[in-house]
Amino acid sequence: MNEYRKVTTNTVEKLRKILKNDALLIYDDTESLKSYSNDESGGEYYAHMPEVVVKPETKEQISQIIKLANDEMIPITPRGAGSGLAGADIPIFGGIVISLERMNKIIEIDSENLVAVVEPGVVTNDLCRIVSEKGLYYAGYPMSVETSFIGGNVATNAGGSKVIKYGNTAHHILGLEVVMPDGEIVEFGGKRRKDSSGYNLLQLFIGSEGTLGIFTKIYVNLIPQPGKVVDLLVPFESVEKAISNVAPLMVETKSLPSGIEFIDKKSIYYASKYTGMKLPYQDEVESYLIVQYEATSLQEIEELYEKGGKALQKNGAKDVFIADNRSNSEKIWRMRRNWLESLKAVDPYVPTGDVVVPTSKIPEMMKYINEVSNEFKIDIPVAGHAADGNLHPAPLKPKNLPPNEWKTLSEEILGKIAMKAAQMGGAISGEHGVGFIKKELLKKTKPKQYKWMQEVKETFDPNNIMNPGKLF
Ligand SMILES: Cc1cc2nc3c(=O)[nH]c(=O)nc-3n(C[C@H](O)[C@H](O)[C@H](O)COP(=O)(O)OP(=O)(O)OC[C@H]3O[C@@H](n4cnc5c(N)ncnc54)[C@H](O)[C@@H]3O)c2cc1C
């Protein structure tokens, strides 16, 4: 365990000199510091106060701050939008939080090379919107698209609802400029699409959760806008029927939807209360799939959704509702996107599991989650990216249980589900990352890799300055 030093007034003075603008630093202001003490992973019991928050505007400032932190043995926690669900941006040792919120420029949209070059604090949806004005498409689409930053997406290797067709964030990143844990600024990859010269270190940084360096520039892959989008809302009388439709839908129609989302009855109940919306058959069915198709022509999209709709009905869907305009699509997605918010409205302590299994194993995984729910007598609504085998069980705290007891119990429940996923050939996290909440599970499920990961960390960050306590 490293011995970290406290931030002193002398350290703060040095930070002020680096930033040259008092508005870029928060110190000695408990209320403002508190906004940087937690993410969205669950209760207040996970929060930890930073000693100082800095909001640099340039890579050079970040480099100098990191050099200072090394000299003074002060831990650094990089922070994006704070929408994480694993505690990865919580400053558990205090120290300096480096917020990337001021580095929010779209530097270049290079239509010729189909690449956008952006700073890490760009909100993901802003990137999607701005490139779409040029007929281009960024295919990363976490459900937090309206709040999370692209830098946070890269650092967690975020997934979302379009992974089955386009891949997770790792598939969209061509290059990174990184301020390393010793303050050196290094580029990995760039606008080029291929590079087989040596180990692929670029990919090592994707999903590194701020433990190997801070991204200051991101080269993002773009594709032409598909143009046509259709969503199908598909109610099912049982969870098993819904889930067992996922793989056959793709195989039988020989086509990939851009997403297949799953949402169960309990989740719909809370989402409906929260949004004030009601879905067809809501009181009669046990679950829904939302299937999205994207294509470049009207004819192509019609063929896709007709084939898909027929396959779903043949395999037991109660009905298939087609949303082929933006307003109807938005109604469907509002329920799904607001899933977590609607649970937080009834239980601010709700944690979100993030297990992933091979797609064919989702029915077994769902059955197991149900068994755990019965064993612990805890309500566990589930939603997820069904096409990727990625489910989010979200246990709800019984009203009278004290938060600290709930912390232990909910970690036990989600730990059990995560271990089962790993035994089934899956993993303890599909897209939210490990942070500090799941690090024991990482160690248990990947013991050999864990050791190598530690060695990588020691090579890049011998002082263990960058986001300590995360992953390890
Ligand atoms: C309602 C809701 C829905 C969500 N849906 C999804 C979903 O569909 N798919 C999904 O994958 N996730 C989802 N998430 C989780 C979360 O939005 C993602 O993990 C997101 O990628 C985090 O981005 P952020 O900018 O908020 O980063 P933060 O939470 O602030 O940080 C996350 C990690 O990134 C590191 N980091 C941030 N910026 C940098 C940088 N520039 N350089 C190095 N490290 C950095 C931090 O240190 C931390 O380790 C959801 C969250 C919520 C609240």
TrEMBL record:
The keyword Flavoprotein applies. Keywords: FAD, Flavoprotein, Oxidoreductase. It comes from the Bacteria. One of its GO terms (molecular function) is oxidoreductase activity. Gene3D superfamilies: 3.30.465.10, 3.30.70.2190, 3.30.70.2740, Uridine Diphospho-n-acetylenolpyruvylglucosamine Reductase, domain 2, Vanillyl-alcohol Oxidase, Chain A, domain 4. Its cofactor is FAD. Residues 46-225 form the FAD-binding PCMH-type domain. This is FAD-binding protein. It comes from Petrotoga halophila DSM 16923.
